[in-house]
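Entry 14: structure prediction run for ATP synthase complex subunit 8. Input pasted below.
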Amino acid sequence: MPQLNPNPWFFIMIISWLTLSLIIQPKLLSFVSTNPPSNKTTTIPSTTPWTWPWT
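Run finished. Output tokens:
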């Protein structure tokens, strides 16, 4: 059963992971986000209690 022989597939997996880790990932991480988070302070909305007509 050739699928149990790890020789060629293990090498392909290692090369794939090294390519992803060393070449593709730094290129992807170098992009600047197009919508950076803003430094606005969050305002808490003023809430008023609900007045129930039957109480």
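Notes: The chain has a mean pLDDT of 81. Will compare against the previous run tomorrow.
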